[in-house]
Design a protein that fits this description.
Blueprint (H helix, E strand, L loop, with lengths): L7 E4 L1 H7 L4 H8 L3 H8 L7 H11 L3 H4 E4 L8
Antiparallel strand pairs: 1-2
Length: 79
């Protein structure tokens, strides 16, 4: 059985997109995904692949960790 650590990835895709004055559709086209993918990512309901994270960071000309942040979960079950 797969252990759930409760970890997640937060992101600032919305902030970078708005500062660039882009629509979700425009960003999606630039990084090769659907508008829906950008929408759910901005809402925190989708963790992008590493490849997509790098595409987005490269598009905005920043490091991946400036847009995406690892959030360690609190797995207290096995302690």
């Amino acid at each position: 059985m797969k252990k759930d650590f409760g970890d997640s990835i937060s992101n600032k895709v919305y902030e970078y997109r708005v500062l660039a004055r882009m629509s979700q559709q425009e960003l999606a086209e630039q990084v090769g995904v659907s508008k829906q993918t950008i929408f759910v990512m901005e809402k925190g309901n989708y963790v992008p692949t590493l490849l997509l994270a790098y595409r987005i960071a490269e598009f905005f000309n920043v490091r991946v960790d400036e847009i995406f942040t690892y959030v360690k979960g609190n797995d207290q079950h096995d302690k």
